[in-house]
Task: structure prediction
Amino acid sequence: MTTLICDCNRTMPLAPDELGRALGEPLAPHSLLCRSQAGDFQQAIRGTDPVVVACTQEQRLFGELGRATEGALAPVRFVNIRETGGWSRDAAQAMPKLAALLAAAHLPDPDPVATVTYRSAGRLLIIGPLDRAEQAAALLDDALQVTLFVQGEGRDGGTQARRYPVLAGKLERLQGRLGAFELAWSQDNPIDLDLCTRCNACLAACPEGAIGLDYQVDPGRCTSHRDCVASCTVAGAIDFQRPPRQHTEQYDLVLDLGATPQLRCHEPPQGYFTWDGRDPGILLKLRDMVGEFEKPRFFDYKQSLCAHSRNETVGCRACIDVCSAEAIRSDAHRQQIVVDPHLCVGCGACTTVCPTGAMAYTYPRNPDQGRKLRTLLSTYAQAGGRDAVVLLHSQQGGQRLVETLGRTAQLKLAHGVPANVIPVALWHTASLGADLWLAAVAFGATQVAVLVTDEEAPQYLDGLGAQMETAQAILNGLGYEGQHLRLLRADTAEALDTHLQHIAAQHPRVPALPARFAVAPEKRATLALALDHLVAQAPGPLPPAIALPAGAPGAGAPLGAVTVDPQACTLCMSCVSACPSNALQDNPQLPQLRFIEKNCVQCGLCEKTCPENAIQLVPRLLLSERRKEAVVLNETQPFHCVRCGKAFGTQKGIDAMLHRLGGHAMFQGAALERLKMCGDCRVIDLYSSPHETRITDL
Result:
C-alpha cells in the first residue's frame, strides 16, 4: 500500500522520514499534491494496490483526477492529518499521532453487512396551516405527489384554485417510516373539503366569523345559526349532522410544518421531516427521496443471550429505554425484544447498554473497532508517542467540531487538537461502551474521551455516563490512579479546545505493558480479556473485590454477584430457570443452588422471579479465581418419600408446603400425608385407598 503525504502549502511541519519509519515505507514530501504535484498521485493510483492520501480537503478533486487517469484501478482512502493535528500549535510533536492515523487508514475495510431497503414512490403528506402547506407544496409538486393535511388556520388562507388534495379533521395517529407512513384521522368537521368549492359564501354568511380561510368551522365560536348551511345548499358541503368518519391513508414521505411535531422522538424515522420555512436544504432532500434506498442493518440480535424476560417476567429493558428512535419494543410473551430495522438509525446505544452482548453492533463490528484501536495505539507508541488520549467523536457534529477547531488553530486563535490526542470518528458516539473503552486502556491509552454535542439524545448521555462510572470504578479499584474515562460536552470549537487542553495535561496511571489480544466478537468475551490484562498488570496489591455503582436491574453494573437468604430460600430453583446467562445452576445430585459469578449480568430476573424474595443483587467485580468457579449459595437436606424412601424434594420445601396447605379443607388426614410422598407413590396411594370414591362407584 502506498502512502502520499502533503504539508498543504507548507502549513504543516511534517517529518517524512519519521513518519516513514513508523509506517515501514519511504514517504516522499509534497506541498501541493492536489495541484502542481498531482502527477505523483496519478502515478501511484495506476495499478491495483490501495493508496492512502493524507488529505480530505481535496477528496473530490482527487476523485476527478482518478477518473481521468488511464489505468487507474487502485482503491484510494483519504485520512485527515491537517485539522486533527497538523495545524495545531504543537504539530511538530504530533508525528506519532499522524503516523497512527495513517496506519489505521491502511487497515482493510470491514466485512460487508446486511442492508435494509426502503422504497418510495414520492407520495408526500404535508401537515400544517393551509397557506404554508400550499407554499411548500408549490416547491415540491413537480417532483412529488403532494397531499395536504390542514392543521390550524393560515395567516392568509389558501389559494382559491384546488391544486392538491386537501384533508382536514382530527389527526389520530401518524406512524411508520420512509415508504410506509400511515395517517389515521377522523373527519369531524361539518365542512367536507372534497365537496367545498371555495366560493366563500359560508364565510360571508357566518355572523360569528367561525369559519376561516382553511374552510373549517371553529366549534368554540359557532353558536348554531346555521346560516352557512343555507348558503351552501347547492354544493351541500356543510352538514352539522354528519357523524365523524374514520380514515386511513398511506404515504411515503411526511413534511411537518406544525409548531409541535407529530413525531417527537429524538431520532425521527427516515422520510419524516420538519420545516420552519427557513432552510431550503430540507426541501432539496425531499425532492431526492424517490426510488429505492439502502442502509446498513446496524445491529445483530441473539435471543439466546438476551436477559430481557423469562416466563413473561421482565428483567432487563436497557435497550428499550435508551433507544431514541423508538425502534425497540418488548415481546415478553416470546421472551425477546423486537427491533424494527427500518426505524433503527444506527446509534448503537442499545449495544452499549446491553449487559450480555445479545444486541451487537455490526457497522463496523467489535473486532474491526478493536483492531483499529490497537493499531492506532501500538503505532503511536512505536513512533515514540506517550500518554495517548483516544478522542471518540461522531462523523457528523463531532467531526465538524474537530475540523473547525483545526482551522481555528491555523488562524492562531486556538491551540488545536493536542499532539497526544488521537481523534477517532464513529458513526455514533453511543456505539462504543465499557468493553472497548477498557480494551483501549489495556492497549495503552491513558484516557478515552467521548465527545458529545447537541445531536446526542439525553438518554444516550445517561447510558454513557453510567457505563463510564462502572468502568472507572474498576480501573481505580485495581490501583490505576486518576481519571481515565471522560464525557466531553462541547458545542463550540472554543469549548472543545479548553477541554482538550485540560485532558492532554493529565497523566493517569495505566498498565506498564500494553495488551496485544484481539477483540472478540462477543461483548462479554472482550470485557473478560480486557479485565484479565488489567488485573495482571495492576500496580499494587489487589482487594478481594471492587464494589461497583448500583443501578436499576438491567441498567446498572453488568458484573456482580447475588446473595441468597438461606432462611427464606426453599430451593425451588425458580431462579435457575429464569437465569438467562447460566450463572445460577442446580446440582442434579444434591439439593444445592450454585452460582458462577463470571456469568452474572445483573439483569435482576432471579430477584424478580424468586417467590420467597430471598435474592438480592450485589454489583461488584470479584478478583479471585473463585469468580470463575461454581460456588454453593444454599443447600439443604433432601426429603425422602414416607412410602418408598426415595428422595424427591427438600426438607425445607416440603415443610413450607405442609405449613401453607395444612389448614386447607382439601388437605386433611390422608390427603395431607400424600404431600409427603413422591409422585408415583401419591398415585398408588390414591387408587389403593378404600376411603376414596372412584368413578366406577358412581
Observations:
- The mean pLDDT is 92.
- The first strand starts at residue 2 and ends at 4.
- The longest helix spans residues 458-477.
- The chain has 22 helices and 31 strands.
